[in-house]
Design brief:
By secondary structure, the protein is of the alpha+beta class. Helix content is about 20%, strand content about 30%.
Length: about 375
C-alpha cells in the first residue's frame, strides 16, 4: 500500500509517522518546508481535559497521553515540559493600581493573577516546530519519504482517487490525505470538501532562558476601544517563551511562504509584553511572526474519508488545538486508512460529510 500525504505540517507529519510505523509506504508532499506555517509558529500548549464536554474530549485525552509517550520513545528533544496554567488580567497604565504586586514572582506590577487553571498533571508545552520536524524525521526513519512540490490536483478514475498531480507530474497512491491546514481549501477544487478558513495569529518569541518558569498565562486585556483580548504566554522547555494575542480573520495568501506579521499588531504585542515581565526585553526577541490556523464552520476538525471519492481522506481544521491533537489524529488516520476503521477513538463527530461541500467554482485564495 502507498499513501500520499499532502502537507508536512504537524498533522501530515504525525499521520506519516503512524502509517510508516505500520510498515506502510508513505510519500509526504510539501510545497514550502516542514512546519513552515502554523505547525512551526503556534504556541504549543497541551491540555488533557480542557475539551471536556465537547466532541474533542476523547481526541484531546488520547493525544495528551501520546505526547508524553512520544517524548519517551523518540530521541529528539522538542522542549516537552509539564506546566501549570494561570488566568488573570493585564491592567492598562491608567487602571493599574499603585504598588499592585503580581502573584507570580517573575511578573511585573499590574499583572493580576485571579485563578490557577491547571497543574503539571494536566497541561504541558512543546516547541511545535521542533516537534513537527522530529515527527517527520521519525517517519522517515521508518521509511517515509519527503518530496518537495506543489500539489495541483488528484488523479481520478471515476469515483476512485489514485494519486496526486505534483508540479505537472504524478504520484500514484492507494490513498491520498489532504492535510494542508487552511490551504486545504485548494483541494475543494478537486474533491467534495467543506470550507476551511484561516485565522491569523501574530506572535513574538523571546529567548527567556531560565527566567520564565513553567507557568503558562491567559490574561485578559482591555483595549482603549473597550474590546477585550486574551494575551497568551507559553514558556517552553528549550528556554524560549511564545506570546500571542490579537487573532483575526484575514485574507489567506496564495503561498504559505508569503505569510507576514502585521507590523502594527506586532508593535502592540511587544508593548504588552514589556508590561508583563522584565524577562520580555526587546533585545531578547528571536522571532516576530504570524500564522494562519485552520478553522471550520462548526469549529471541529475534518478527520475522515472525503465524501464521493474512494481513497481520499482529509485531516485538517484543528484550530487552536492542532499541536495538541496531532498525534491522536495521525494515529486515527493510520487506522482508518490501513484497517478501514479508527479503533483508538471515535472520529464520527469529525466526519467531513457533516458539513456542506463547497462549489469548486467558488473556491478562491488570495
Amino acid at each position: 500500500m502507498h499513501v500520499a500525504i499532502c502537507g508536512a505540517g504537524v498533522i501530515g507529519a504525525c499521520t506519516a509517522y503512524f502509517l510508516a510505523r505500520r510498515g506502510i509506504d508513505v510519500t509526504v508532499v510539501e510545497r514550502t518546508a516542514v512546519a513552515s506555517s502554523a505547525s512551526g509558529k503556534a504556541g504549543g500548549f497541551l491540555a488533557l481535559d480542557w475539551c471536556a464536554g465537547s466532541p474533542l474530549d476523547a481526541l484531546a485525552r488520547r493525544s495528551f497521553t501520546l505526547h508524553a509517550q512520544l517524548d519517551e520513545e523518540i530521541e529528539d528533544d522538542w522542549g516537552y515540559q509539564r506546566v501549570s496554567a494561570y488566568g488573570g488580567r493585564l491592567d492598562t497604565e491608567a487602571a493599574r493600581p499603585r504598588h499592585a504586586a503580581a502573584q507570580l514572582a517573575w511578573l511585573s506590577d499590574g499583572v493580576m493573577i485571579g485563578t490557577q487553571l491547571s497543574t503539571t498533571e494536566t497541561t504541558a508545552m512543546v516547541n511545535p516546530r521542533s516537534f513537527t520536524l522530529a515527527m517527520m524525521r521519525a517517519a522517515e526513519h521508518h521509511g517515509a519519504r519527503l518530496r518537495h512540490g506543489d500539489v495541483t490536483g488528484v488523479l481520478r478514475r471515476a469515483e476512485v482517487v489514485e494519486g496526486v498531480v505534483v508540479d505537472g507530474g504524478s504520484i500514484r497512491a492507494d490513498a491520498v490525505v489532504i492535510a494542508m491546514g487552511p490551504w486545504s481549501l485548494r483541494a475543494a477544487q478537486w474533491l467534495r470538501l467543506p470550507p476551511v478558513f484561516g485565522m491569523q495569529s501574530p506572535s513574538l518569541v523571546y529567548n527567556t532562558r531560565n527566567e520564565v518558569p513553567a507557568e503558562a498565562l491567559f490574561l485578559d486585556y482591555q483595549e482603549e476601544s473597550g474590546g477585550v483580548v486574551t494575551v497568551e504566554v507559553f514558556p517552553r522547555g528549550d528556554g524560549t517563551t511564545h506570546v500571542t494575542a490579537f487573532s483575526g480573520q484575514l485574507p489567506l495568501p496564495v503561498n504559505p511562504a508569503h505569510v507576514k506579521p502585521d507590523a502594527a499588531a506586532i508593535g502592540k504585542l511587544q508593548m504588552l509584553c514589556e508590561r508583563l515581565s522584565p524577562a520580555f526585553r526587546p533585545d531578547r526577541i528571536v522571532a516576530r511572526q504570524a500564522c494562519f490556523r485552520p478553522v471550520t464552520q462548526d469549529g471541529l476538525p475534518l478527520i475522515g474519508n472525503v465524501p464521493g471519492s474512494e481513497g481520499a481522506y482529509v485531516a485538517t481544521g484543528h484550530s487552536v488545538w492542532g499541536i495538541l491533537n496531532a498525534p491522536a489524529t495521525g494515529e486515527a488516520m493510520a487506522e482508518l486508512i490501513a484497517d478501514g476503521i479508527a479503533d483508538t477513538i471515535d472520529v464520527t463527530p469529525f466526519d467531513p460529510a457533516r458539513l456542506r461541500a463547497l462549489d469548486p467554482a467558488s473556491v478562491s485564495i488570495g
